[in-house]
Amino acid sequence: MKKVCHFFTSDRLLLVSLLLALVSCLVGQFQLAYIDDTVILTLFALMLTIQGLEETVFLRWLAQKIIQLSPTTRHVVFSMTLLSFFSAMILTNDVAILTLLPLYLKVIQYLATFKGRVTGAVLIVIAANLGSSVLPFGNPQNLFLFSHYQLSFGKFLSWLLPVAVVSLVLLGLNAFVVEKRPVSETTKLARPAKKQTAFYMGVMLILILAVLHILPYYVTMLIGISAIVLSAPKLLKRVDYQLLLTFVCFFLVVGNLQEWQVISALFHQLLKSQVAVFFGGVISSQVISNVPAAILLAPFTSQAQALTLGVNIGGLGTLLASLANLIGYKLVRNLAPDLRKSFFKQFTLYNLLYLAILILVGIGIIY
């Protein structure tokens, strides 16, 4: 019973979404048709695959190799920022941050007088957020929007590519103003399991092809999930069931909201124009984070481009804007508590700056 209580109470977003779902179902009705089974199944399959990839320590090995080859602190920050950005495209922003940020924080323990310590940590988190927004599989809100609006890969990429280019320029400029100091960290390299890495990469590829409708969806998902469960059943314990249940709860809430004529009409009226939808995505993300913001707003608007840009750019800003932001903050608080206050200040400053610039980019793309 304690484990069950902890499961629900340890995640505030899940707790709030569950309460809202219960109220909406009591006032309205419970219907399985409200739940998008495609999104839930895809998320589950990708989570299993990503957890398997994480166990192979391939990304950790790659990061350590980069650190070994980096002669200065500026090289470390620049390389880790780029790795965070590009790895998050496939492995999600959460995994990129959970893998790379602890490594970076360990390296800077040996550089107590390095002035760019906090900036590097901030850039790794921002890069993971921005990198994950480029492709449909990089984060949960993109996966949902890609499925909900039945988008093509080319169209989705064309919307987010300008944001990615501007983001890389900003991150590069930031990294190159970081103080340049020699690095002599000699961390022993992790040994990636080559066969397992190839296996999970292969499963990831077929899952992506299924999401893109190149392979038959349900058959491919069943094959991919079965292959992983049979080879490593322990990975079932590492799936983020709290996030999956949060999705289910929000689907129920939104499904009932659509049935209430007054509320449905109000949302449709508020989300008429592209600009309104874009800023609705940005602003709501600051308060409830971009995943629930996407689920909440999507059923009430056909402006797929504006909403996709809004919730992805809206992942910048406050700590609440993205769950990845909270993960980054918690890692710094636990692993480098002396940097917590300065991290929060720089994180907020840089995030608001990036948010302001990318809002202009987003408006430019819409028009």
In short:
With 367 residues, the chain is mainly α.
Describe the structure in your own words:
The chain crosses the membrane at residues 121-139, 159-178, 199-229, 241-263, 275-300, 306-327, 347-366. Residues 14-308 form the Citrate transporter-like domain. It is found in: Cell membrane. The protein has 367 residues and is an all-alpha fold. It is built from 17 helices and no strands. Helix 5 packs across helix 8 and helix 6 (117-132) runs antiparallel to helix 8. The mean pLDDT is 89.
* Uncertain regions spanning at least 5 consecutive residues: none
Beta content = under 5%
Instruction: Give the overall silhouette.
Output: globular
* Helical stretch tally: 17
If you average the pLDDT, what whole number results?
Answer: 89
Sketch the topology as an H/E string, one letter per element.
Answer: HHHHHHHHHHHHHHHHH
Q: What separation lies between the terminal Cα atoms?
A: 53 Å
Major sheet summary line: none
Radius of gyration: 21 Å
Percentage of residues assigned to helices? over 70%
Number of DSSP E strands: 0
